[in-house]
Every structure is written in structure tokens, then in C-alpha cells.
Amino acid sequence: MTAGRLLAAAIAMIAATASQAVVTAETRAEPFAGRPLHDALQALRREGLKIIFSTELVRSDMLVSDEPRATSPRKILDELLRPHGLRAKDGPRETVLVVKAPPRRPASRSPPPKSHGSVSGHVVDARTGAPLPGVLVQAPVRTGIRVYTDARGAFRIDDLPAGHQNLVVGADGFMEARPTATVPAAGVVDPCVVDEVRKHIPEWADDKNRLTIRHLLTHTSGLRDAFLLRELAAPSDQAGDLNEAIVSILARQRTLNFTPGSEFEYSNSGYVLLASLVKRVSAQSLRAFADANIFKPLGMRHTHVHDDPAIVVSNRAEGYHREAGRVDLIPHADLGHLIGTTGLFTTVRDLLRWQENFTDVRVGDRAFLTEMQRPTVLRSGETSQYGFGLEIGQDRGLRTIGHGGGDPGYAAYVIRYPDRGLAVAVLCNLDNIGPMVGGLARSVAGVYLTDIPAPSKGGETTTAAPVLRPADKLANKLGLYRDPAKGTFARIFIRDGKLVWASGAGEGESIDLTPVSATRFVIPQTPIAVEFPAAAPGRPQEVHVFEGRSKPVVMQRVPPFAPSSTELRPFLGRYASAELDVTYEMTARDSGLVIQRPGRDDIPLKPILSDTFSGRLVNVVTFLRDTHGQVSGFTVNAHGVRNLRFDRVKPLANTRHSASPPHRA
User: Fold this and answer.
1) Which helix (H) or strand (E) holds 367?
2) pLDDT digits (tens, 9 = 90+) for 114-172
3) What is the pLDDT of residue 623?
4) I need a labelling partner for 351 at 20 to 30 A (CA). Which of 109, 158, 412, 416 fits?
5) Tell me: domain 470-558, CATH 2.60.120.260, correct?
6) How is the chain split into domains, by residue range?
7) Which residue, 109, 166, 56, is CA-closest to 327?
8) Are 552 and 523 in contact (CB under 8 A)?
9) φ, ψ at 639 (rounded to 5°)
10) Nearest in space to 99 (alpha carbons), one of 51, 151, 47
């Protein structure tokens, strides 16, 4: 593989990794004395501008401007904010708001405040003045040349010197790039993407699936989720290269989730494999290769691949998680030193420099960059809305190219509107904001796209929805439903008088459903709708799940299964997986089964169908029988892992089926 081909693969990998970046800081803002933030926000609102605001860091209002403004950002902000002790400052590429930071305080452990606001530097607890992590945006201005806005949350909530303005933590920025002509479609893409993986990684020498680099880049590889595989395997005491450990466990897999190129399934495994490929072919670490060939040429001076957790990064924004009124620091060790799918340290300004390269090409081949932004064509002729490390979508009728992601303590989103020369980058150091970060980025883009009506907030209106009570219209919808095509399950039940959807047999994530009619429910602020058609005579009740598709996913209700201890006996025994190099012991407990794993917590299994059980991590366990009807093994079907086989090796003798064995769960 030539250096140019290797560079092309690395560019595509960085494109996806950028959305899971850890936030670092680039510049400082000067502190100025100021009055309460509330007054400043009200002044801006009186000018017809609505500021992004947060309620308990869970939801945000939109950032909109009623009309375009040609006046410079600094003059507008100075005029509006001067009475409140705030001022705007023009930098070489941005206009920011600056205000004196609150005095140093310990991290808040009190109940969540009712509201937070943001001025460059901090997201502040409105009641106590204690800073909180997060990201909000303000600077409702635009110019005819370039605008960059920068809003801050708390850099570190437990170490804020009085009067000191911390650096970029989570920041939403938007810029107007120089207009360029549409890049024509290229003829031939850099040929490295058609190389088979086994050509460069010896562990894949016996690969019969002809897995290519293109499959890895486009998430059409069929690779199983390596992180779940590691969790299901026995714990390893070996310290070393986590990426190489993942390459090893992937190479042991005898089967894939599907034939490469036939489906789209997001897979971090492929990008870990790409990182190892770059290292082996270039004889350089991904950090060194990307720094020399991508980051330095683009002027991304504050960006690097963080492949060594022992290295201290100055101006690093700490990552936080908020739960039950607490804001907890995520230790650096929790991020590990995995690269390829994560591990990129950057700033919002550097991300925008990265985005500019797609229109003003300085690094990489123009033909390859164009191919990165094309939807992938599957074997069936259908297309996925994903290119090389980039999602292709639409907003306000405009084509968008972007990606979102997160790590413990962090969330990020980057999006570009190529037909308008507009790019947005969002970095947050509070992972709870992850589900809303994409909407936040689009809201910022709306400041520039004032000539296009804003879309609805998603989902269906519920203003005329009937009030359904369990006693009349909900009870007949309850139960366990199965997707016969994929073998996945969902349970529908009532909680606090509302219909609730839970993945798996009920142990997965649950969410309330909002009625829009007697038979149709929606998940607000999403395109997801759930419909209960009338059951045909002699047929099970169905639920149809719509998610922006023309055809719904059809699931059928299955009858309850409550096996006796005698009926559980055939499943007991020891089962081994050659692909994981681990042996499990299957025992009985109460009315279900328990997977006992060496060195790890037990996994209780609930019966859901004859020969089928459900539990955390494994999701669905289906027992297999030989030609004589004897249990011979089982398969695991979970998110990112399909048909992982365990073979029975030895039945348990003298097992007490009614008693619970010692357990670690």
C-alpha cells in the first residue's frame, strides 16, 4: 500500500473518530466584571434574538435570528451587553463573549438547579453560582464573510481559580467558508479501499469472506462488536496494546454477522482494525502518521491521537456524567487508550479547520474526499446513508455530511452543509447531552440558514391525542413481541399509567410512548412511531415500528413461557465457545437460568419462549438441539453480535434445580 493510499484510509478514519473527540482547550478569554447573566439574556431576547438556554442540562431552546444582520458581531454584542457589564471581543477568527468567572467552589452535590445559562467560560448553577460542565451557544450574529461563535461550559468544576476564565470545554461553532464550485464526481477512487484486509494483517490469512478496507470504512464489514466479545470472554490479566487485543479476538471469529457488503451495521470494530492497519503498513503509530500527514498540514495544532494514557494533556477539559442530582467526574482511566474508533483529542476550532479541507483541499486526494461523501451501495443495490466515516443526510432540504458520537464524560457532533459552505462543530464535556447534541448543532446552523424555514422538531404532533387509561385501551397491547426476521424482542408494559417500550425481554432501555390515536403512539422529538393494527382472527397481535422507513418493522406478540424446574433441567451443563476461548456453566435459579462466567458477574436469564431466554449483555440466548432432540449448545444474539455459538461440553451431575447456587451478581 502506497503512502497516498494509506493517507486516504487514515483521513476517512479520522472523519469518524472526530465525532468522539475528547475536548481540549485552545485559547483563553479575558475576564471582565459583569452583572447577573439573566439580565444579559433578557437584553438579547428583547432584540428579537433567542439564546440557547438549558433546563437541567436536558433540553435546549432553539437558537434563531429573526433577520440577517450585516453589522459586525462585536458591535452588536457590545451595544446589547455593555449595560450589563459584559463585552464582546474580536479575535482573528471569532467573536466571543467574556465575563468574570465565579469564585472557586467545590463541585456541587446539591439537587439539580432549575436553569443554567452560559457566557463564554462557564455553565453556571443559577442558584448557587457553582459552575457545571456542559455546552451551550450564544452569539446570535452573522456577517457576510465569516462568523465563528464559541460558548463554554465549565472546564473543571472542582478547580476554578477566582477571576480566571477557563478554556474551551464544550463549544458550538459555526463558520461560513469560502464559496467553491461543486466538486465533480471522480472516476476512480484511491485503490487502497479495495485491498483485502488479509493482505496487510496476517491474522486474517484464512479469511474466506474477502473482507476489504472499503467494508471497514463503510460499516458493511459484518464484523462482530469486539467490545461485547471482550466482555463475554474471560477477563485478561495481560497488559498491553488494547487495539492489538481486539484485532486478535476479531481474528478468532469463525463467522460474521452478515456477508460483507450486504448490510449496513455500525461497527466500531472496523475502525479499530483500520488503526492497526495504518500502524502495520506505515511502521508508524496512528498518532505519528496522522500528525505528520493530516493535522500539521491543516494547522490543527491542538489535535492528536491520544494513544498513551500516561501522557498528561494540558488544558484538557474533564469529562462528567450527571445522575440523580450529582455531577460526577469520569476518571481518565475510564477512557482507556483505544484508538481508531475514539481517542482523538481536539478543539472546536481545529474541527472546523478539518471541515474546511473538504472544500479547500490541502490534504488528501480530491477524488477520494468526494467518494467519502457518497452513500454506500450494498450488494442488493440499495444504499446506506453512510460514506467513508461520514453520515449523509438532509436538514431543511439541504444535503448534510456529518457524524456524532461520545465517550464516557463527553459528547460531540460535527455537521457540514456543502451547498451552503457552512460547518458546525459541537464539543461537550457532559455525556448526558449526547442525545440532543445533533439537534443543538442543527439549531446553530439555523442562525445562518435564515432563508429556509426551520423543520418541525421531529415526531408527530400530540396536541389532539386522546388520554388512554390502562383500564380501557392499553391492556390489550401489553406483552412480549418478537421480530421474526432478526430474532430480537421488545416488551411493552404500563408504568405510571403510560405505555412503555423496553428492548429485549424488558431488561433493556425503556421509554414512554405518547398516544396520537387509539392505535398509534410516538416517541416525542424522534421520527419513531409504533402502531397496533387490529389482530386478524387466529393470528397474534402485531406491533408495527416506523422509523423513517417506508416499510415498518413487524413484530408479533408471543405467549408467556414459564418452565418448571423439570423443564429447565435439559439446559443445565457446561458450554464452550472456541471463538471466545471461554467456558460457561449454565445453572438453574428460581424460574430461570443463570450463566456463570469465570472471573465475571453472573448473567440471569429469563424464559421468553421454548428454548429461548433473555438477559443483559447476551440479549437473546437460543438453545440448539441435535437430531435426537437433545440440547447441544446455544447461540447468543445481541447488539452487534449475531449467532455466537457455544457448544455443550459436559452435563452437570447432581445439580439441585430448585436452589440458588452461590452467585456474584
Assistant:
1) helix 366-372
2) 222 222 223 333 333 344 444 433 222 232 223 334 444 444 444 433 222 222 222 22
3) 97
4) 158
5) no
6) 3-23+180-222+257-448, 37-166, 225-256+561-665, 470-558
7) 109
8) no
9) -65, 115
10) 151
